[in-house]
Amino acid sequence: MIPVALAHAALEYAARGWLVIPLHSPTAHGCSCGRAECESPGKHPRTAHGLKEASRDPATIRAWWRRWPDANIGILTGPESGILALDVDGKQGEESLIDFERRCSHLPDTYTVRTGGGGQHLYFLWPEGANVRNSASRIAPGLDIRGAIRL
Known about the structure:
alpha+beta, 5-stranded antiparallel sheet, 3 helices
């Protein structure tokens, strides 16, 4: 049986046109990948070819979550999905976001989700013709951009 919440969310994202991929899950002992030295517990693909296998196909997504019912959900950002994300990491990211909005401009209302680590992802439409790459804390501490990914 597929866990309703995870499978439903993955199918909902795909219905929005976003490419999704099953990710490993954090466990009491680290990461479900089983590598003791895993540097990204719960944040890397479970599939053999990683992000290259991201899909919108409901049958594929259902099969993944039947195989890995506890899989985290990854979303491929960039022009392929038509979105970019602002990753707000923890308290430092929240403070940076408040400061950014105070100094520059309030961000528009947008689709926002809480992350497993207590942060949040804010999703925005991909800016047509833009070349936005991933970055970590370049705009401010704790604020990461999730843009185009080189596959």
